Amino acid sequence: MSPTVVVCIGDSITFGNRELGGEPYPDRLQALLGASFRVVNAGMNGGGIVPSDRQVYHGGEEWRRAMAAGGDILVVMLGTNDTAPWNHAGNPLFASSYATFIDELRALSPRSQVVLCTPPPIDTSFPGIDAPHSTILGGLIVPVIIGMAAEAGLPLIDVYAALATRSGWLADGVHPNDCGNRLLAETVHAGLGRLRLPISMCDTPEQDQQGTSSRFISS
Fold it and tell me: How does pLDDT run across 82-113, given as a tens digit for each residue?
C-alpha cells in the first residue's frame, strides 16, 4: 500500500538551514512517522502570505511542488516573513490574504487534510531582530491563524504556544538550531497524533484492548 504523504508547506524555518540547525524539521518528522509515511519538504526561503512580500509563497515553485505532491496531509506553517519591515504596510492584509491562501489550497487539494500551524516565536534578544517582529507575530499573525482554524473547522497545531516557554532552541532569533528543529518535529508529530487522523499502517501498530491494530498515529 502506498505511504501516507505529508507535505510541509512553509518558509525557511521549514526548508531548513543545515549549517544553523542540522536536519530540517520535515526530515526529523519523517523519522518520527516511519516508513509508512512520506514527508515532502515544500519550504520556501523568504516565503510569505501577503502579496506585498518580497517572495510570496502562493504561485511560486514550491507552491507548485506542494500541489503536485499528492499530499494526504498538508501542514501549513507560514507567517514569519510577514513580520518583516518591508511588509509592515501589508500587515492589515494578512488576514484576508491568509484566508485566500487556505481557500485555494483546499480547492486545489479537496481530498487533503489541511492542518494549520502557528509559526514559532521570535526572540528579539538576538542582534538584528527588532521588537516589531515579535509584536506583529504574537499580536497579529498568530491570532489570525488560530481564528482561521476555528472559522474554517481546520485542525490547529499551536507551535507558537508550545515553544514560547522554551529557551536555547533558536540559532539567530528566527531560525531553529539543532535542538529547535527536533522540538519542531516533535511538536508537529504530537499535534498530528492528537488529531487521530485515520492514516493507518504505522510501522509498529499498537494493539488495542480487543487485540486489533491501531489505525492512528500514536502520539
Answer: 988 766 655 788 999 999 999 999 999 999 99
